[in-house]
Amino acid sequence: MGIKRRGFLQGAAALAVGTTVVGCDVDVIPGGDDETPSSGPVIAIDVGAGGPKVSPLMTGVNGAKWYDDGFGMWDAKENAPDPDVVKKVKQSGVGLVRYPGGTSSNLFNWQGAIGPQADRTGQVEGKQGAPVDSGYGPDEYMAFVKAADLTPQIMAPFVGSTPDEIADWVAYMNAPEGTKWGDLRAENGHPEPYRVRHWEIGNELFGKHQRYWMSADDKTALRQYAFGGTQRQRRQPAAKPADHRPEAGVSDGEPDQTFTVRYPPVVPESQAVHVNRVSWHQVDDLSSANARDRVYTFEPGSGTICFGDGRHGRIPPEGAKITVDYDSGPHAGFVDFYKAMKAADATIDVLACWASIDSGEYTTALSFPRLMAKHGHADEYDGVSIHPYTDFSRDLKISSFPDKRAGHDFQMIGELAAGKMVTDLQADVRKYGKDDAYVAVSECGALFFGGKRNTKAYPEYAYAMSHALYMASQWARFTAAGIPWTVGNDLIGERPGVSRTLLGGAPGFIRTPDALVREQLRGFFHGGGHAVETGVRDNVKVSARETVLGSSYSALMATAAIDDDGALGIVVVNRSPDKDIKARIQPEQFRHAGSVEVSVVSGDSYDDFNDARHPHAVGIEKTKAVLRSQEFSWTFTAHSVTLLRCAAR
């Protein structure tokens, strides 16, 4: 029998002293008398086949939002992180936190988010274009990093930034006092360098919904990302400096109105400004214009458009839509950012973000490593970050969950493809990049992106136990692949409630099953040491509805590592929604000390989740057991994550 939550604690007390407990069975194999069934799964572990170092940064989290006080994690009144968030992040074993986030941060202006709060500028949210605040800036982020004992990782925006601006950010974070930016950081209350090592340039710019100034053609956009360029913008609504919504480009009928283009700089004389589709004309000086002239002034560097006051130049009528055609650029490319940032601090790693995915596969036809090698720049990136999401609509070609079980199964089916995206990119980087170039995962998870989708059958799929099983499976794959750092899910959900996050929204900050699995595996990932070769033979297959990625998946997922103390840690994920599975554990070339420490994360069902009403529906339970043989069998509870830790003899 397996370790069920309802019988676990009673069993734990007895097993700690080596007695037999019904419902908490540890099947030992006495020497010379194999009591393990001859059939069934075998988890084979070859300790002699050393693998990559186990990274304490495997269970990173995406900061996701810098505005609105990070959805409550920053206490603006106290000018400090919320202590409850800090406590729960520490408890959850998070090793790394990404800032300022993903899509929402593609237009982030770091210099507008430092210094006194009253002097900070507004920001443009990168997905909706809406104006947001700069309250949770780089210094507040680093205060949170320090309080929660985390490693920082920064996504430096590509779209609206220049290489010099991002190099200055590197200097602000890492340069010592006695330098321009080190002195400014000290003036803002932080004399010691932050020493931020992990940087990436841009977020998901391969996606057509995140091209901004770049071409809609994939191959052209890839070249623009790598090497920079210029791109024609047509009938684009005018904007305000901190507002890119369409309504920001509408006249209020007042004199002396000022607008900007969305993506400066602008090639001089390339712009055409339209008011209600009527072309107006550029002049050098409005003072010489008369009241009826349809004119404006234009500054190409900032893309600023200025209209008249009704005496010198006509006022665009109230409600008129201002649109602009223009050549956006010239813009710098990744190679320029890399050079400038490494000049600011040669010790940092600068990663590219272009890892295109289509229909559940990494797209080698749009290979950043191959393009860089072709043009003689193979040494000019330290790695590539990837977002190997399982997108149900893109990858499995579905728009709804037929039932709750399908919502669980589709995640498990997609998880295998997500892991292959990462290893395929690794192969690409190893083939075309420099020897020490690597792949990192700066976002991952399972969800629907955009379009029509129906999750009514299983609305909690992204924060129930199902998704924790998905994430644990991903961490197992990434450990075996030697991924140095991984960011999965966001830190905090919008208030109130729970979402695809580590913690639910303020004020409760409920810990999701994802957080509990991270806590469970904290010692595994923070224990140092290295992964060892692990495989599951004769695995159980779970049947599911037919999808383009298949109609079944392996029930068990396993990985193992030897930590700095010489102990063997074994992580086993049972993804089956309803079946306990008994498997033989075969640790080759390892002698344990005769006992095992066990922790299990599970609920009573795969769809269990934690919320304010039921904060402990999913939990962690621990015990110890006596082992009387080097090989032993274990029954892994359905829909659970189990960690077995055996000390070395």
Short synopsis of the structure:
With 649 residues, this protein is α/β, with parallel strands linked by helices. It has 14 helices and 37 strands.
Descriptive notes:
There is one protein chain. The radius of gyration is 27 Å and the shape is elongated. The chain has 649 residues and is α/β, with parallel strands linked by helices. Strand 29 (541-547) and strand 30 (550-554) form a beta hairpin. The chain contains 14 helices and 37 strands. The strands form 9 sheets. A 10-stranded mixed β-sheet has the order 1-36-33-2-28-31-32-37-34-35. Helix 5 (163-174) crosses helix 6 and helix 11 (404-432) packs parallel to helix 12 (465-481).
From the spread of the alpha carbons, the general shape counts as elongated
Low-pLDDT sequence parts: 1-37
Cα-to-Cα separation, first versus last residue: 28 Å
Largest sheet: 10 strands, mixed
Strand content: 25-35%
Structural class category = alpha/beta
Please give the share of residues in helix. 10-25%
Rg on CA atoms, Å: 27 Å
Question: What is the average of the pLDDT values?
Answer: 92
What's the total number of strands? Answer: 37
- Order of strands in the sheet with the most strands? 1-36-33-2-28-31-32-37-34-35
Alpha plus pi helix count: 14
Oligomer: single chain
